[in-house]
Amino acid sequence: MRLLQTAALMVMATAGAAQAQGLRAPQNVHAVPWSRQSSELATRSAKAAMAGDPAESLALARQATRLSPQDPWPYYNEGMALARLGQTDAAVAALSAAELRFSTVDPWGRSVAIYGRANTLAGAGRCAEARQAFEQYATFVEQRAPNSAALARRYATECRAPATPPPAPESPEAPAAPEAPAPPATP
């Protein structure tokens, strides 16, 4: 839960820094082929994610990617839904696909996809990979959002692999033989 809150704060921090520097939220509608229907599905997917329904978000995102395979936002939504469902490898693949599809004129969208990948890896305890992704994000946004870059680097150092679960108990020992009954009391 902390990682999701952190992700939300990171996106807000990036957005705040971007606004302060005159950058805008993504304007991809003319950068990639898309359809109104896929855009509506991507929006519904994002709303399902915000409502706490990652399975519905995933289904809607996949419909949108089939309609507009070059639109990055459905891939982003798919990746975040898969992350919530614990499917880390598939989530990372979808977030990487989103990153590749963001136009070079949309650094904000690309940064969100990179950060989503870093956060997903950190949430899964895959810290070596997460550190690399956080550093990629930090390097990418450093000129436009130095505070966001510093925060990502801090998150990279704070990543901890989950504690290893205790070993499974070995086969249970055979129950002890019952004690012999006490001799009857003599009157």
In summary, what is this structure?
Helices cover 64% and strands 0% of the residues.
Please describe what this structure looks like:
- The chain has 187 residues and is mostly helical.
- The protein is built from 8 helices and no strands.
- It folds into 2 domains: 1-26 and 107-161, no CATH class; 30-105, Serine Threonine Protein Phosphatase 5, Tetratricopeptide repeat.
- Helix 5 runs antiparallel to helix 6 (107-123).
- The longest helix has 19 residues, at 2-20.
- The radius of gyration is 24 Å and the shape is globular.
Number of strands: 0
Backbone shape: globular
Structural class: mainly alpha
Overall pLDDT confidence? 81
Gyration radius from CA atoms, angstroms: 24 Å
Low-confidence stretches: 1-21
SS field, number of helical segments: 8
Write the element-wise H/E pattern from the N-terminal end onward: HHHHHHHH
The largest pleated sheet is described as: none
Strand content: under 5%
Q: Number of domains in the coordinates? A: 2
Can you give the helix content as a percent range? 55-70%
Distance between the termini: 69 Å
